[in-house]
Amino acid sequence: MNWRSLILTVCIGNGLFCLPIQALSKNFDNLKSSETQIQVQNCTDCNDFCTIEELKGLAKSITVKVISENGWGSGIILKRQEQIYTIVTNQHVLNTRDKSYLIQTPDGNFYEANQIKNEAFQGNDLALLQFRSTDYTYTVASLGNYHTLVQGDKIFAAGFPILEKPQDTEFLFTRGKVSILSDKPLEKGYQIGYSNLIKKGMSGGPLLNIYGQVIGINGMHAYPLWGDPYIYSDGEQPNISLRQQMSHLAFAIPIETVVKLAPQFASLPTIKVDRTGSIKIFNYLFFPDFIDVLNWKFSPPILPTSCIAEGRRKNQALSEF
């Protein structure tokens, strides 16, 4: 990727504007001083983490209903490029006989969508759809890092469960904790096991951390009715005790899997300038070259920092369960 022509989104106060990276140093000259440093953060702003209501609202704003002839599932708004939106969902949500699908967006509008056929997800339970919106703008998910999670972290799942009344558009938001973080994926890419209630129809919906970042894609609820999903992708099987534990949990595919296999659909790095003039950079995790480019452009140099320890403290403090 040509980082020198990368377009970044800059947030100053309540305003947004976009500019190419080659213009950054000139635009930030008036913001820098001997005390100002550019910080690269591993997560969203450490000073703020979302309340339960904020998380629910954010989850609803990035979650869509994916409708096929035989029912529906959920999906996540992964990227916007002009009027084209890309949705990530589970492959098992899509009917392979369907040539097109309907997407119901958070505002209740419907759009025809087509599956992107040329993405090889290597057996992972993932699929991409695209739709065009000329009149309305929708929120794009912010991506988090699965590797910052530890067992016991609070996480949040969302989607549209299949109900007795198909016309009902109930949105379900559930709370739970991380129980299993597998070093290697199960078949179809599942690695994150968690206690959240996941119902049929929520497959393809987001799994979020306390900062409102998508860390995974829901796809497998607890107590599966058929098949044996608890086999690793290399053919090995977990021991009996671990398999029993797995059966009580829902599972998600890490968002990193999507980014690794379809990097052109990852969220671009963004720069935020707060009211004090501090500059922070988000969504850089999947673009390691990005830091080198900014170091080449800026003085003083970027200081990579981590919100992980601070996030642990706030995870413990999130007491609305």
The total beta strand count reads 18
Count helical runs.
Answer: 6
Assigned CATH class of the largest domain: Mainly Beta
Name the CATH architecture of the largest domain: Beta Barrel
In round numbers, the mean pLDDT is 76
Rough outline: globular
The secondary-structure class comes to alpha+beta
Condensed summary:
The protein has about 325 residues and is of the alpha+beta class.
Describe this protein's structure:
It contains six helices and 18 strands. By secondary structure, the chain is of the alpha+beta class. It has a six-stranded mixed beta sheet with strand order 2-1-16-17-3-18, with no helix packed on it. Strands 4-5-6-9-8-7 form a six-stranded antiparallel barrel. The protein has a six-stranded antiparallel β-barrel with strand order 10-11-12-15-14-13. β16 and β17 form a beta hairpin. The chain is globular. The N terminus is likely disordered.
Task: List the SSEs and their pairings.
Blueprint: E1 7-12, E2 15-20, H1 24-28, E3 38-40, H2 52-62, E4 63-68, E5 71-81, E6 84-89, E7 101-104, E8 110-115, E9 127-132, E10 154-159, E11 172-181, E12 192-194, E13 206-208, E14 214-220, H3 240-247, E15 250-254, H4 255-261, E16 270-273, E17 279-282, H5 289-297, E18 303-304, H6 308-317
Parallel strand pairs: 1-16, 3-17, 3-18
Antiparallel strand pairs: 1-2, 4-5, 4-7, 5-6, 6-9, 7-8, 8-9, 10-11, 10-13, 11-12, 12-15, 13-14, 14-15, 16-17
